Amino acid sequence: MKIDVEAIKKLREATGAGVADCRMALEQSKGDAKKATEILRKKGIEKADKKSDRQVKAGMVFTYAHHTGRVGVILALACETDFVAKTDDFQNLGRELALHVCASTPSNVEELLKQEYVRDPSKTIENLIKEVIGKLGENIQVLEFKVVKV
C-alpha cells in the first residue's frame, strides 16, 4: 500500500515518532491513523521496557501549587542526560506528574505509577512515562515527591 507523505507528516506531528516508524505503522494499519497511533504507542512502551535498567544520572525538580495556595508538590524526575532533561517532552511530563500528584496524593512512587492519569483515565502514570521514554529514547524515573498541605 502506498502511504501519502501528508499522512506520515500528520502522524509524526501527533506522536513525535520518527518518519520510518510512522510509515511502518501506517503500512501495518493500512492507512488508518488511529490504529497507527496505537501501534506506535505499543512500540514506545516496548522500547521503554528495554531501557528500564539504564542508570539515571540527570533530571530536574518540578513543583506545582494548587490555585488555592493550600496544597503543593515537589517532584524529582530523573533521566539519563541533561540534554533530555531540557526537552519540552520531559518538561511537560514533569509538570503533568507534579499536577497529578497534587490531585491524587499517592503515598509513594509505586502507588503513583499504578494510578490512572487524571487527564486521561485510559492511561496509567507508568504508561504515560513509558510513552515519553519511547519518544525520547532514555530511561525516565520518578525518584521521589513530597506533598505539602496547609
Automatic annotation (TrEMBL):
Region described as Involved in Mg(2+) ion dislocation from EF-Tu: spans on this chain: 81-84
GO cellular component: cytoplasm
Name assigned to this protein: Elongation factor Ts
Keyword annotations of the record: Cytoplasm, Elongation factor, Protein biosynthesis
UniProt cross-references to PANTHER family, sorted A to Z: ELONGATION FACTOR TS, ELONGATION FACTOR TS, MITOCHONDRIAL
Entry-linked SUPFAM superfamilies: Elongation factor Ts (EF-Ts), dimerisation domain (SSF54713), UBA-like (SSF46934)
Family, as annotated: Belongs to the EF-Ts family.
Superkingdom as given in the UniProt entry: Bacteria
